[in-house]
Amino acid sequence: MATPFLDQATCAARPGSGDRADDHHSGSPEGGAGQDGRRIEPIQEPGPATPPGGDEWRDKLIFGLLAVFILGFYLLPSTRDLGSTPHDYLFYFGMLPAFVVLGASGLRRVRPPGDAGDRLLALALAFVLYLGVSALWTRGDRELSPLAVILHTAATAVFMVGSSQVLNDRRWNQLRAMVVGAATAIAGASLVGYLFGGSAHLGRLKSLIHFEHPNLFAHYVGFAALICLLRVLELRRSGGGRTAPWVAAGLVLVGALVLTLGRSTMGAFVAAATLAVFVGRDRRVAAGLALVLTVVVLGFLLVGGDWGPSFVYRGDAGRVFIYKNLLERMDGRWLFGVGFAASDDVQFPVGSPDFPRGFQMPHSHSAFVSTLYHGGLVGLALLLVVVGSAGHRAWRIARERGDPTGLVLLLFGVGCLLADGHRLVSNPHLSSWLIFWLPVAWIVSAGRRDAP
C-alpha cells in the first residue's frame, strides 16, 4: 500500500526500524520526489547521532522520569483537599532537577544551525518566558505569588525542552503503549464506578481517582484514544502487528470520552480523528470509526434519559459571559495584557442565566482568551506563531514521511483548549502539558537520531 503523499520507496517506514536513523520519525537525509515529480526537501538536515556511552544513561533516566510523570495524569490520585499536589511534587522534586542537572548533556548535541525543530523550540520558549515576565506589570488582584510565577514558567520551559531532547521513535513507541494502558485502566474502572452510581459529576463521567472536572478527564482519555487510532492506522499501513488490542482499548476510551459529555473535547476528537484517517487514506478504518461513534452516540441518546437534552441545551456554560468579563477587565491594556500573575476568576451574580444561584468560575475557560488577557496581543501573537509553526512542521512530517502523529495530537490539543482551557504556562498537572506541550515536544524532536 502506498504511503500517503509520497511514493512508498521514498519515505515509507520499515517495520521494526524504530531505533534506526532512517525510520519514519527521523526521516531520510536524501529527501525524495513528491507525487507531482517535484523534489521535496527533507524536514531537517542530518545531524550528529547521539554519542554512545556517557550520555545514553542520562537520556534513559530522564525518559524514565518523563514516563512516570506522564502516567501520573492517569494513575496518580488527587483529592479535593490535596488537589494535584502529589503530581506537581513529582515533577518539581523529581523530574525538574533531573532535567536541569542531567539534561544539560543533551544541549551538546546541537543540530545544524537554522534547523526547523530548534526554531520551533525557540519560539515556544519565547512565548513561555514572555508570559512569565509579564507578571512584572501585573496590577489589581493577584492569583499567583512571585514564587508560583517562577515555578510555573521554569517548569513549563524545562518540561518542553527536556521532552524534546529525549523523545525519539523508540521511546515514543514505549510511551504511547504505557499511556494507552494507563488510560484504558482508569477509564475502565471509572466506567464500572459510573454504572454503579459513582464516578459522576452532575451525571457526567469523571475519573474514579481524581476530583477534577470531567472536562479534564475527557482531555486525558481523548488524547489516549487518538493514540490508539494512530497506532491502528500505522499497523495497517505497515502490514504487521495485531490491531485488536489497540481497537479494544480505543473503544473503551471513546466510550468514556462520550460519557464525560465534554462537547468541545468530543468536537476536537472528531476533527483530529478525521484528519488522521484523511492522511492515512484508510477507508475501512474511516468506516469503522464512523460506525462506532454513531452507535455510541445513538445508544446513549436512546437509553441515557436526559443525557441528550443535557448535552444540547447546556448552552455555552457561561463562556460568553466569562470572555466579555475578562476583556472588559483588561481596561485598554490590549498590547501587553494585565500580567501573568493577575487573577482571571469570574464571578457569576445570583440570578444569572447560566448559574442562577451565583458561581465563581476559577479560570478563563479558554487558553487563548487567557493568553490574551494575561499577555495581551503580543502574547496571543506569540502563541499563534507557535501553533502555526508547529502545525506547519507537523504537516510536512505527515506529508513527507506518512506520520501524522504530531499534526493530529496538536489539532486535538488546540481544539480542546480553544473553548475549554486555562493557562498554558502553569503548574505541571494541568492538562495543557499533556495535550499541547507534549505534542509540541514531539514535533520538535522529529528527526532525532538514536544512539547506534
* Overall SS class: mainly alpha
From the spread of the alpha carbons, the general shape counts as globular
How many domains comprise the coordinates? Answer: 1
Strand content: under 5%
Distance between the termini: 30 Å
Order of helices and strands: HEEHHHHHEEHHHHHHEEHHH
- Tell me about the biggest sheet? 2 strands, antiparallel
Count of runs of 4 or more consecutive helical residues: 15
Q: Indicate the low-confidence ranges by residue numbers.
A: 1-41, 44-53, 106-110
Query: What proportion of the residues is helical, as a percent range?
Result: 55-70%
Round the mean pLDDT to the nearest integer and report it.
79
Q: Reading side by side through the largest sheet, how are the strands ordered?
A: 1-2
What is the rounded Rg? 22 Å
**Got a strand count?**
6
Describe the structure.
The chain has helices at 8-11, 54-75, 85-102, 116-133, 146-166, 169-195, 214-238, 244-259, 263-280, 283-303, 307-313, 319-329, 367-401, 405-420, 432-445; strands spanning 32-33, 39-40, 200-201, 204-205, 346-348, 359-361. With 452 residues, it is mostly helical. It has one domain. It contains 15 helices and 6 strands. It has a two-stranded antiparallel ribbon.
Question: What is shown here, in short?
Answer:
The protein is mainly α. It is built from 15 helices and 6 strands. It is globular, with a radius of gyration of 22 Å.
